[in-house]
């Protein structure tokens, strides 16, 4: 199976009448006509299978538009969208409905929209019912999902009898049980209080480790994006500013806009030895299996840990692979330079 779940090429979406004509006009003049508004513009993006990709940006930046384009709820004004290799625009209506049912786990919104007149078990099973899974299997899978999110024993309670946090877990269980590899989530945690929100984020990470779905999650919260995303695409006014891992976005922002977004992020928790090390010098060539430096760390060691080691001993650190190969070196200057990119008085607020 291909490692790519979804692929977008030069996707544009304009809202309003005569979108195709508006698009030509916008290309030619850089102006939108009356009644026309920008959804997304020239988005090219690859969504890897089995990972969590985050669409991040301020309100109005085009995140929800992009999400709806992915499962064909919106048609692009221009460009190509492939789902598992299938070009969406070639599908007839019925084929699209079938693909949506088979490939997508539906779309999760704020609050998860639980059904008040169904029990916890009934709520989780409901999505499967829509997907026409047989009753026996439905109930078995719903049971397993409830156990998974720590709601075993609460199968027969109604949403109103569950705490807010438990309701959200229920919603998460329902989403993750559904058939279909791709789960689209539009600001699922935005309406929650900070503590419940952190709990749910942790829950999602834990569940995702097991189910390894392709998740595309929309958020306007950078901390959430960095915490949940294997890949983050940062949008501004419908345009992608940068796509990268959390570490890439924080250590190498593509432009001033991205830099401003990540300015407050605690780099010490996010960056690792591999992103702050210097390449080995010739004398320390990787072929030499026994580097001269006696202090070493693995490439995944966090900057916070490197900082702690360096503060106790200012010797140069070697960064060694699992096989003992020298990948690079870290001097105290490297550590300071990495930290200095943080603005002064940044709170160390990212709790991992
Ligand atoms: N149905 C619509 N009709 C017209 N304009 C829309 C519609 N939906 C979204 N837009 C516009 O598209 C832009 C992106 O919106 P949206 O994708 O909802 O952003 P986000 O989810 O990032 O807040 C906004 O300027 C918004 O006003
Ligand atoms: Mg939105």
Automatic annotation (TrEMBL):
Pfam families: ABC_tran (PF00005). Keywords: ATP-binding, Nucleotide-binding, Transport. SMART domains: AAA. PROSITE patterns: ABC_TRANSPORTER_1 (PS00211), ABC_TRANSPORTER_2 (PS50893). GO terms for molecular function: ATP binding; ATP hydrolysis activity. SUPFAM superfamilies: P-loop containing nucleoside triphosphate hydrolases (SSF52540). The keyword Transport applies. This is Glycine betaine/L-proline transport ATP-binding protein ProV. PANTHER family: GLYCINE BETAINE/PROLINE BETAINE TRANSPORT SYSTEM ATP-BINDING PROTEIN PROV, GLYCINE BETAINE_PROLINE BETAINE TRANSPORT SYSTEM ATP-BINDING PROTEIN PROV. Residues 6-262 form the ABC transporter domain. GO terms for biological process: quaternary ammonium group transport.
């Amino acid at each position: 199976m291909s490692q790519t779940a979804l692929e977008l090429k030069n996707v544009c979406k304009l809202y309003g009448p005569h979108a195709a004509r508006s698009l030509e006009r916008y290309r030619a003049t850089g102006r939108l006509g009356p009644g026309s508004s920008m959804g997304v513009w020239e988005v090219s993006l690859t969504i890897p299978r089995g990972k969590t990709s985050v669409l991040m940006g301020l309100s109005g930046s085009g995140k929800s538009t992009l999400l709806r384009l992915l499962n064909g709820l919106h048609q692009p004004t221009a460009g190509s969208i492939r789902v598992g290799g299938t070009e969406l625009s070639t599908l007839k209506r019925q084929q699209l409905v079938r693909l949506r049912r088979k490939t997508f786990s539906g779309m999760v919104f704020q609050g998860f929209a639980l059904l008040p007149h169904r029990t916890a078990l009934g709520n989780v099973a409901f999505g499967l019912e829509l997907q026409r899974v047989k009753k026996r299997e439905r109930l078995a899978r719903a049971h397993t999902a409830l156990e998974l999110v720590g709601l075993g024993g609460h199968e027969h309670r109604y949403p109103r009898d569950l705490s807010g946090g438990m309701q959200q877990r229920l919603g998460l269980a329902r989403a993750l049980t559904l058939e279909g590899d791709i789960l689209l989530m539009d600001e699922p945690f935005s309406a929650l209080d900070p503590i419940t929100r952190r709990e749910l984020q942790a829950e999602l990470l834990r569940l995702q480790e097991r189910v390894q779905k392709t998740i595309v999650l929309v958020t306007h919260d950078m901390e959430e994006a960095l915490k949940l995303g294997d890949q983050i695409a940062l949008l501004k006014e419908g345009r992608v500013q940068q796509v990268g891992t959390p570490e890439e976005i924080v250590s190498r922002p593509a432009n001033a806009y991205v830099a401003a977004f990540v300015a407050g992020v605690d780099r010490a928790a996010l960056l690792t030895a591999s992103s702050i090390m210097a390449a080995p010098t010739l004398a320390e060539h990787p072929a030499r299996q026994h580097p001269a430096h006696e202090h070493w760390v693995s490439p995944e060691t966090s900057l916070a840990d490197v900082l702690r080691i360096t503060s106790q001993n200012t010797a140069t650190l070697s960064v060694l692979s699992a096989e003992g190969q020298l990948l690079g070196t870290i001097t105290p200057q490297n550590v300071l330079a990495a930290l200095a990119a943080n603005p002064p008085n940044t709170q160390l607020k990212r709790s991992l």
